[in-house]
Queue: 4 jobs
Job 1
Amino acid sequence: MKLEEARVLDHREIGGGYRLLKLAAPAISPAVQPGQFVHVRVPHYETALLRRPFSVYKTEGSSLSILYKNVGRGTATLTHLQPGDSISLLGPLGHGFPEPAAEHVPVLVAGGYGMAALYLLARNATQKGVAFFGGRSAQDILCADEFTGLGWDLHTATEDGTSGYKGLVTEPLDAWLSAEGKDRTPEFFACGPNGMLQAVGERAIRGGWKAWLSMDRNMGCGVGACLTCVQKIRQEEGSWQWKRCCKEGPVFEAREIVWDEDVEAGNSKPASTPNAPVKM
Amino acid sequence: MSVDLGGIRMKNPVMTASGTFGYGPEYADLIDLNALGAIVVKGISLHPVKGNPPPRTVETASGLINAIGLQNPGVDGFIREYVPFLRRFDTPVIVNIWGRTIEEYEQVAERFDATDGIAGLEINVSCPNIKEGSCMFSSNIEMFRRVVAAVRRKTKRPMIPKLAPDHAHIADFAKAAEACGADAISLINTLPAMAIDAETRRPILGNKTGGLSGPAIKPVAVKQVWDAARAVRIPVVGIGGIYSATDALEFIIAGATAVAVGTANFTQPSTALEVVEGLRSYLARHNLASVRDLVGSLQT
Ligand SMILES: Cc1cc2nc3c(=O)[nH]c(=O)nc-3n(C[C@H](O)[C@H](O)[C@H](O)COP(=O)(O)OP(=O)(O)OC[C@H]3O[C@@H](n4cnc5c(N)ncnc54)[C@H](O)[C@@H]3O)c2cc1C
Ligand SMILES: Cc1cc2nc3c(=O)[nH]c(=O)nc-3n(C[C@H](O)[C@H](O)[C@H](O)COP(=O)(O)O)c2cc1C
Ligand code: FES
């Protein structure tokens, strides 16, 4: 984990409202493992005290890229970055994806920036498998060529039918599972909206397979100190414990995750669980 | 740069604020813990505590509202998991303690009195995130006296009650702490606060309300430190929105012997060390031999 002043090398729009930000970060880039993230201090936004977490999309030697979407004030401010500007990064952070098990077929499932979060895993995997990407329309399917170029079998699903299957990504996934899942054991790697993660997790648990899910939780420090980013993780005998998404996560195995109503509703929305402090 | 904080010898006046620096290891890769004046760890209670449901923090303009709910591994968990690590550094470790009852405060204090490697205890009587217990200790001066006096009987270590921001009575609380045997006081803790999502008309935090920290509270904190420091002879630790040496100097000039960096650790983990460097160059620039010459040097 390093604190580094990175320099902007390139910054461009890639469609779907996403931007690709390429940074020279020689201290951080070589250490990044698939599924890890960097915590970014948004320049020229001094009234914002918290950094913003972004998955590392690509690393190339001393540079790294992130793919981000303008969804609020911090990301809106990032859009003004120009090549040559400097930006403070903290990273690499978190416990990412494990290496895919050689005896299984790796199955990637992603929505939104989840596609970026899975790229390094796809690139490093010795065995290429199947990828299922979902979005609202064709422009929400990011970096598809990158995955097919690596030799992955890509299936897409869009709500408006402009790319691949018209509907949810779980439908082509289910079709694939019933056709192929009998003879081959899938191992899932997923990043995207909570509903999608939960759906993938349920299928894995039902089939007796593993699913590695990357959780998106609001973050404070990013290093394990503030206890903002906690996720309920199952312990033995029906009990649970908080684990930190920035430290023990963001990737957890589906069986570990205790899905709460507030998680299902999306963590940037207020908790819909009763607001009483948790009993010990 | 060295200061004596009620018996705790610090190589410089800059410490970390409780709850913003974990238990030490979290930031050890990023900054040299030996370069800090002291490390104040997150609040410890007798038993492990799970804390509040998420969302636990929300950013506001120049501020951060938190309702972590004092999640911690309990005294035994802390001693087992973190004290051996902390002992490796040449930096005093101050443990922030809290309880739901006076007996719990006493028991935690007693456990730490018997533990090597603990330089002092900061008594959190002022966290807005728990409903019973500590809250009444901070708003009721009689209860506050009882807690401080009870802990005093159980520990020989330097004891630092941490005061809640209280406009009307801060000097009274400071005097009460001194009278009950405190070696120093620290202030301020977070200010009670709330943020609402207008679209859903719900509170943003899982706990509905929380405590505000960051630059937004600094002017309030400076005033409270100024009022408290004039009321007592024991040293004062100034806390609240410190992001730079200039911020720290405001507190020191207002009467603080030491300062603690809190929320800034999240924004820029190097802040505490930058404050140390900035203080050093200020002293050089003003031809001062020691930070002690600045404490309470406000010109009015
Ligand atoms: C591990 C991880 C990896 C991520 N990777 C990417 C990525 O590769 N690309 C990408 O576009 N986005 C990613 N996100 C989401 C990204 O962090 C948010 O979109 C961003 O923080 C929004 O900031 P803002 O100031 O624009 O939004 P605002 O809504 O103004 O932010 C207010 C606060 O809420 C937090 N917040 C808002 N939305 C999210 C969110 N979805 N997740 C976490 N915190 C949020 C912000 O960090 C900030 O503290 C990731 C999140 C996590 C936790
Ligand atoms: C996330 C978070 C957790 C905190 N936890 C504690 C705690 O456990 N005990 C305590 O006495 N103060 C706690 N505090 C209060 C800080 O120690 C400090 O008094 C306050 O944040 C004001 O300083 P700042 O503006 O520099 O952050 C916490 C603050 C934050 C932001
Ligand atoms: S973000 Fe602070 S503990 Fe994870």
Job 2
Amino acid sequence: MAVSDLAQTSKAELSVRGGRVDAARLSMLALVAILLLAPLLAGGFLLYSLSLCFANALAVLSVSMLVRYGGEVSIGHSFFVALGAYAVAIVEHRLGLSIVVSLPLAILLGAGAGFVFAFPSRRLSGIYLAVATMALALALPEILIGFEKFTGGFEGLYIAQDLIPGIPKALQRYYVALGVLVIVCLALAHFRKSAQGLALLMAQAQPRAAEAMGITRSWARISIFTLSAALASLAGALTGFASSTVSPNSFTFFSGVFLLVGSVVSLNRLSLPAALVGGAFITLVPTYLAQAGDWVPILYGVALVVVTLVANAGDLRRFLPRGRGR
Amino acid sequence: MMEAGTSEGLVAEGISLAFGGLHVLNDVSLTLRPGVITGLIGPNGAGKTSLFNCLTGLYHGQRGRSSFAGTLLNGLGPAQRAACGITRSFQNLAMCPDLSLLENVLVGLTLKRRSGWFSAFVPTPALRAEQKEVERRAMAALSELGIASAAHDKPSDLPPGTLRLAEIARAIVCEPRAILLDEPAAGLNAVETRDLMRALKRLMRPDLVLLVVEHDMDLIMELCEQIYVLNFGQMIASGTPAEIRAHPDVIRVYLGDDADD
Ligand SMILES: Nc1ncnc2c1ncn2[C@@H]1O[C@H](COP(=O)(O)OP(=O)(O)O)[C@@H](O)[C@H]1O
Ligand SMILES: [Mg+2]
């Protein structure tokens, strides 16, 4: 699989002959090349922000994946993100091990949590499911503060261990986050063509037809939630690694809402550029909003209402331009 | 527990189905023998699709039993019946708009595929080989119905006739043991209907159960060896085309008030 596949979210694009595929391939290579070389030019804060942006892009992808392949929205994905972030921090504090161990562990924990959540809620959909995910996001701060002994309570925990000792921390954060993001985008492009990917898309668009082909609704629901939560948890692990810290502040109820808004902003697409747009949104907007002071809760509230209304309408994809999505 | 004779083919006995007070099927029985194209006709609203949904597990009748090749189907859902080798098409086209026609047909092979979750995200040689094989089979099914040239188009860019044929391609692609087609000729022009009938006859194998639901009497008469007639949820006649043509109740239904169907 080539880097160009990052741009390919649909078979139709693949079959476009000649010039356009080459242009897409080139622009994608160019984007990855620029990102690889960026640390030569940029430094300090910009590099740090970009690392966070990559990690956040992964979190946005996890929500977009749920929307695309599951046809559902979640406003509680910050729960799974926090799970991954705290896994990295706790593994370091308790066991003294780096992300070599905690990254795979975060994926497994996320998958497990996604499965555990999906199983009882496998018959819910639309607004009901969204509200169920909201419960996760609401419970999160309580859990983080309640298990103070492990989570460090309000203070949170620091993450200090390097992946490869000797290489500057900023570069490690940057390249690890970028590398994982690129790999995940490639994997998602591959997934679109896989048996499971096709089956999930069918189950979402035509549940009855899918059942008649042996694809049950509960299989589809449990599968997509497990996958999406695993990705969210991986994203969280990288957020922790990239920011060197975890605390309840980063995982409020509204970070779940924000992930969904970020996914909408990136048009729920699963390509590298779309993920970067969503990631940049999540990274930058809260910072700017913070300057709005008293208005913040109101802006968050408006965002929540809008997102809930969209979820209630049942179909985010209506807002996509014709042809790409459906 | 199975009596002789019922162990072959797809058998439904005494199916009754009601939605609230609306009795859609009343004590309906039919036997679909392998190697024979069976037709089910009846005016609109007679309950053909409902019977179909009972056979495929989408609806569960309040009464009656159904079995396939000696296996009791009662209590099995659509996915489990699909695993028994029963496939179907939908009267209301059920294509996924995000997928190309070829990919829509590929989904019909889901139960036959062995590739696991790992290869869903990481390309492996085994997956490549499988992908090639299933694409070959899907293309063969599309060719069989004469729509291979539309393989890479999106459903929204295609006429209903082509989608109807693709719906059938998806039902036959996994080489099922029973195929149930709900109004396969609806929306097709005369030429496409001819091609479809030829394709269905070519499809016929001695061990295949094939049921075609239609309200077009002429098409069914030409295609089928065995015909059932449903009216207001009641099976009013069954037999060969000649017997059906001469059946007084059928004549009344088709030449009487409901003649416009
Ligand atoms: N899910 C359902 N709920 C309520 N009524 C239904 C349902 N499905 C079918 N019916 C009713 O059953 C009757 C038969 O419909 P149907 O089986 O679609 O007929 P046909 O396929 O022969 O045209 C119709 O009156 C229809 O309204
Ligand atoms: Mg019907």
Job 3
Amino acid sequence: MILASRNLSRRPLRSALALCGVAIGVAAYVALVSIADGFVVTLTRIGQLGQPDLVVQTRGVVDPILSAIAEPVLAELRADEALAEVDTYATHVARQPAQPFFLVFGLAAGGASWRSCRIEEGRSPLANEREVLLGRLAAERLELGVGGELQASGGALRICGIFSSSNALLAGSAVTTSEQHHALFPDRPLAQLAFLHFAEGVDRRTWRTRFEERHATLQTLEPSSFTDAYPELDLGRQLARAVSWIACLAAAIGVLNTMMMNVLERTREIGTLLAIGWTRSRVLRMILAEGCILALLGGAAGLLLGALGAQLTVAWLDWVLVTAQVRTSTLLEGGALALILGVLGSLVPALRASRLAPTEALRYE
Amino acid sequence: MSEAAHLELRAVAKSYEGGRVRALRGIDLAIARGESVAIVGPSGSGKSTLLAVLGTLERPDEGEVLLAGRSVWSRGRDLAAVRALELGFVFQLYNLVPVLSARENVELALQGRVASRAERRRRALAWLERLGLLPRAEARASVLSGGERQRVALARALVNDPPLLLADEPTGALDRASGELLLAELRRTAREHGKTLVLVTHDPAVAAACDRRLRLVDGAFVGENEA
Ligand SMILES: Nc1ncnc2c1ncn2[C@@H]1O[C@H](COP(=O)(O)OP(=O)(O)OP(=O)(O)O)[C@@H](O)[C@H]1O
Ligand SMILES: [Mg+2]
């Protein structure tokens, strides 16, 4: 071990370059996966609007934005005695110069999610006006206040008030009532999702089964596992993995190159170790240890860099929908990845070293 | 013959490059326990090859190598253990690991043989002390003088206390004074511990001090004790 780490210090620049390669590979992995995970977290917040017990959406949609709850169904739900409240939401992407994914929500007036928005400045939107409330976070990011204007299809929207919300997604968006939202964006349904709040003493499982039997085109989701309904979200993760694997391949080649040069350069020395009685497996382990130390040091740097990079990227993009979620599991995977890179990169050089002839000790060029 | 020779070669031949370079041609040799033997001869005559064969580093194409009466290249023989415990090799250019200290270099020969770190350290320091290198024990090999390096290499060869010492021009890269000092150490240790010593040398004085001198020309012995 001492020998392995000492050997790496012989060619500090070469070791440092290989180390950087591993760091970049691991950092790419951690950063991209964290951003993909952050996206999932953002979507999870939709399911938590107004803290419902159950969410209803169109069965099998790829994104909540594609879901629609028909008005007769809404009417039926509102008439259901088992439900204390039926909240709804619709959303529209209104591209802003600095926020390509800026969302305008239409919430059921007076509903749980509407009530969770506390107006801090200005007033509620007036019916038949092109007016919206702007979340505090969005107001800060867009540098807009009461009386300011948002871009939207069909004309500008005037900001009539600023609200605060504990839901980060709402706080980073604009909000108006369902009816007004539908009037502003007629191609949007009144309700894309319904958020159900049960009355006390209702057997939720039975209710759920009965509801889904009646409405084959709809599905009910637990708010906590809301995003499980979107396996397509995994695509983000997969893509993040695919991209970082390319970086990691380059890193493995970097380690391979460094370790190969180390072995070739130390042919006589390795021959000497064999000549003084080292076993071939001990030589193999020494070179593997060198590669792994290199990769783990690089990996440690990469984890830091990746976690930091994810936050910096998100801060730099400054999009409300894009946040970074650095999970412990992602960091562990990053560490494992570094180790794999170390072993992969040093296996061939180690095998080569272990097969050298002890007579290499006698060769003097 | 009262007892098996310590080291014996029977009709050993070794060639390189598909037989075009015949480095050793039919060598017969028996070296008794405790004997000191000098191998001399012109450059390219096969001295290093012979020493490598004696030291189990090189496998001969033909013939047999016997160590204490047992064939070295027989199946199932742990060559790494033989190299570590049965013999010590001293190389012309020391072959130390430059990034390790003198002590750590000596300890390399104990890796995998002595489990305890403290014990490895103790043994390495004991040999460095015997060779007058204790003050330099923690110095990196790369900052030591040639003479010091070769004494570290000698300590490395001796630290497992092998009964046989092999040295390929151990003073070849040293100035006269350090060379003489090293040879004095080498012979003294060999004598004191009853070790068998085989060394390759160009120096007639060094050869003369050995029990036996063998002259190698073109891969074969041409005479004994006439160098
Ligand atoms: N690995 C090898 N591959 C090819 N030829 C070799 C190899 N090792 C030695 N030889 C050749 O075998 C012959 C004997 O070499 P050896 O090194 O044993 O000579 P030597 O007596 O030690 O010479 P020197 O005094 O110069 O060290 C030489 O012709 C050499 O070129
Ligand atoms: Mg030679």
Job 4
Amino acid sequence: MSAPLLEVTNLTKHFPIKGSMGRTVGAVKAVDGVSFTLEKGTTLGLVGESGCGKSTTGKVLMRLLDPTSGSIKLDGEDITGLKGKQLDGFRRRVQMVFQNPASSLNPRQSIGAAIASPLVEQRIKVPGGIKAKVADLMDRVGLRPEHANRFPHEFSGGQRQRIGIARALALDPDVVICDEPVSALDVSVQAQVVNLLKDIQADTGVSYIFIAHDLAVVKHMADDVAVMYLGKIMEQANKRELFENPRHPYTRALLSAVPSVDLDAALTERIRLGGDLPSPSNPPSGCVFRTRCPAYELLDEAGKQRCSTEVPAGAMACHFPNAPLAATVGA
Amino acid sequence: MEPMLSVKNLTVKFPTDDGMVAALNGMDLTLNRGETVGLVGESGSGKSVTSQAIMGLFKESRAVIDGEITFEGTDLLALSEDAMRPYRGKKIGMIFQDPLSAMHPFYTVGAQIAEAYQVHNKVSKKAARQVAIDMLGRVGIPDPKRRVDNYPHEFSGGMRQRAMIAMALVCEPELLIADEPTTALDVTVQAQILDLISDLQAETNSAVIFVTHDLGVVAQLCKRVVVMYGGQCVEQASVRQIFQRPSHPYTRGLMASMPHLAGDTDRLTPIPGSPPALLALPKGCIFADRCEFAKIVPDGRCLNMRPELIVEDDHAVRCHGHELKLIDETSLIGAGS
Ligand SMILES: Nc1ncnc2c1ncn2[C@@H]1O[C@H](COP(=O)(O)OP(=O)(O)OP(=O)(O)O)[C@@H](O)[C@H]1O
Ligand SMILES: Nc1ncnc2c1ncn2[C@@H]1O[C@H](COP(=O)(O)OP(=O)(O)OP(=O)(O)O)[C@@H](O)[C@H]1O
Ligand SMILES: [Mg+2]
Ligand SMILES: [Mg+2]
């Protein structure tokens, strides 16, 4: 079997906390031991609460940030330590679409120039000329090529997100990291952009890492889903498996918190997480989720002891996946 | 029985350098005592302007307002800024869209809740502080005696939203307007806040206008829904009616474009086109240029004439096609399944 397109192993990113006199007094463990693989033409959804490390993971994968440890392999080649020219070559193959379409575009640059910028920066020779390439990209994302000379403020939020997608596609990347690409959009516009991303994938075979906090959108987009909490992956599975048979208490709590539009749905599980997210600079020992876990409270002393001392590992990072859950936890 | 609040044919226009922005174009809404109504619609449809108009926040602005806002028999639009003050904060409380900008960063959370109370109640500083502590406890802030002296930045996002709710409810208003109070929050925190609002509402029997663009939140919290488009109410009905038999083409479009957690759809169905330009509204139906039914309505009526809001039983719809019974009630799109 050939190597997966992208293979991430034990990736960590710690941001040092500087005290007075510039000494390092601690670290924000934004990403803390994340592993997954991504196959060609598929989508991995990355979900979890604000601050759990989704964007940082994306930025490290793009090599916009250097990882603290761990490895990233693209087509079997370790790119973790690449520098200079080699790094440029890698960047051609991995691109990013950002959450806020307004702030990721330069207001004084025409959208045609914005879409062409990766080609210009990388000094790529385009056979038919850059203009034709830009027109083709605009056409592909549903923008009118004759609008190439217009400026970002002349476009709506959904159209600006299309511009960002066209720019990310300019270098024909293998992987596009989409960091909350539809979170700022209204549902009807969101549906347009989600359909567009799926169409592009069907046409080009590009792979996506799709970061979002809206579970319904992730369910619609992804093939596999990884659920993050405090810099770690709690559960990772095939989409169908994860949504139909969630096993980790955090996944179950997250799913049960989504308000349902199905008025007649039986209120099967209603798990409320109490308390606040612990600080990523001082995460709980053992299982990082234990302080808010709806199963932890009901465990016996030996079970609690195990959760406080041993870090759970694997695609379902829980010591007691079948333990009963308390309905509500904390204050 | 008279409704507690009735908004009729409300128009709000803002003069700008580019011309008049027609934010509300004949907005209608009714609310009974103790009732929770969801106000939904796309960004820019006029949800916040409706809320702000009810709170009387345009009284000393350049906005041009017309129509009717009747609250417990009083015409709020006719009131002066001074006469409005006993209503704002006391009878009508509001939770704003952005909790950070609505709280002062240099005063403690407790001081701000206490002040909100003292504006309308003649009590000592000490008594007001105690009210603030009690209120923080009621909205589920742990250790309120200590937390009362924290500054807003020392609270997490969810706690700040709870404090905002405490501030809005401290005078026990009869009407609470909550403008997207959970949009910026994670689903787990949102679930806590929605539970809190339902509990407090059951306790105090206040009426709630809940502004959101999340239809799931509406299904969970509200009995009735008002759907806005282009500064108008296009449909107003029970939650069940809106979700299971939506009538207005825009409401149907909204339902169909939404991804569902239950079930499996391969493709979403977006509403084609983009929201109306409020600087130059069409003379016909504001939704006509995006509407698939506009073609089947005779005489180009949708393009030439604004439809009226037709009320039948508890269901109001603003659509020529619906009025002429050209839209099949049973042809369902989206919604559950
Ligand atoms: N440059 C930085 N320096 C220090 N800490 C950082 C930096 N960037 C991110 N962090 C911290 O790392 C943690 C993870 O942040 P990240 O932006 O990856 O979260 P996220 O999952 O994308 O959240 P959101 O859903 O809010 O976008 C947070 O605690 C954040 O404050
Ligand atoms: N003070 C103002 N001056 C000029 N235009 C305004 C003003 N306030 C609101 N508007 C415009 O009125 C329209 C309706 O705005 P409103 O804030 O009510 O929308 P909304 O439905 O609350 O949207 P969102 O979901 O984005 O909060 C928008 O086009 C907005 O730009
Ligand atoms: Mg992020
Ligand atoms: Mg608003």
